[in-house]
Amino acid sequence: MTATASPVSPLLPPHLPPTLPHPRGPLSAHVLDRLHGPPGQPPAGPLPAPAPDHAPPTAWDDDLQLALYLCYELHYRGFAGVDPGWEWDPDLLRLRGHLERCFLTELRRVTDPLPLPDEALAGLLAADPGGPDSPSHHLLTAGERRQAAEYLVHRSLYHLKEADPQMWVVPRLPHPAKAALVAVQYDEYGSGHPERAHALLFARMMADFGLDPAYGRYLDAVPAPALAVVNLMSMFGLHRALRGALVGQFAAVEITSPPGAARLAEAFERLGAGPDGTLFYREHVVADAVHEQQVRLTVIDPLLAEEPELAGDVAFGIAATGAVEDRLARHLLTAWRAGRSSLRTAPRPAAAA
Amino acid sequence: MSATEPRIPRVRLTERGPVLVDGPVEVVLPDGTAMHCDRPVVALCTCRRSRRFPFCDTSHRRRRP
């Protein structure tokens, strides 16, 4: 299928796997070391699993979050030069299980006590869930262009595969909810027009800001708080046991997106973005206003009518999404208010290539 | 796709939010302007506070002054 019917020349980055990043500690070094070789061989040394008594402080570390990200990316596009067989390597899956339990324990801790799903949804429906102390407010009122570019780099790890983590849940849903979730996903993928897929709109926005929109290009630059946002979705999506949490995550993102997206579109315009540089967020204001209604009325309500025991998991998914987003917001605002970059390394622009 | 009857577009009213209409639709404004929207579902603003009127932008969430 070609996209020549689009009035705007669509930017279709080649479908290539990203290159492996640099390690950030013993766990990620261990995973990277293994991925360089063939799968199916027992590891040479013992697994450097995190000590259980250290679980809370290490769950948010760069090392653990990157190791988890590497394990999950094998289920999406993989990495250049890495054998695709690693996706189902039992030893790597065992290590992933350790990392997930560590992350999940911490998420359960920070979201305790859980509200009821109705209360959790009502909280999201506040006019401005992020409050005035959010990165989008900062970018609108005091942001600099380099900070807008940093924001896109953080978000690129998800938005360049937007909607993919939520696809894992589809076969795990009962029928009315399944059809409704797929209807939302169809819109995320461009409603049959590949050039309108949200991931491609994001790529065009990155290019407008002089960034390289290649998938996974900035993995080395992205710190743990932004990795955790993506790891949360992958973990919820890949575990049938966490399908309720995935639906909660999906709802939380769709419901909270429109006010923030409207502010980001305005902020980016103020910072000199062209039409391509605001299209993604302008699209999300209207698209997610529809999706929030669809998710609540046609996904969550029928799902909980069918499987009421999932209510706690839906609430957990909503609360955990809030927890990882709050953490990322604090990271961004702390760095920006101190005049520092919020990235680990300066992102190299696209044009130099 | 039903083989027995034509598909009827669904219009769903929500409690305090927009009207959800199966797309694609053409929305005609009072001044005669026609707007085309080919989303699978279109959310039409009923509170008249949307900055993207006639489409919902979730402005109905703001409390009335």
UniProtKB/TrEMBL annotation, chain A:
The keyword Oxidoreductase applies. Residues 10-24, 39-55 have a biased composition (Pro residues). GO terms for molecular function: oxidoreductase activity. Keywords: Oxidoreductase. Its EC number is 1.-.-.-. InterPro entries: Haem_Oase-like_multi-hlx. It is an enzyme of class 1 (oxidoreductase). The keyword Oxidoreductase applies. This is Iron-containing redox enzyme family protein. It comes from Kitasatospora cinereorecta. The lineage of its organism: Bacteria, Bacillati, Actinomycetota, Actinomycetes, Kitasatosporales.
UniProtKB/TrEMBL annotation, chain B:
SMART domains: ZnF_CDGSH. It comes from the Bacteria. Keywords: 2Fe-2S, Iron, Iron-sulfur, Metal-binding. This is CDGSH-type Zn-finger protein. Gene3D superfamilies: CDGSH iron-sulfur domain, mitoNEET-type. Residues 22-65 form the Iron-binding zinc finger CDGSH type domain. InterPro entries: FeS-contain_CDGSH-typ, MitoNEET_CISD. It comes from Kitasatospora paracochleata. Pfam families: zf-CDGSH. The keyword Iron-sulfur applies.
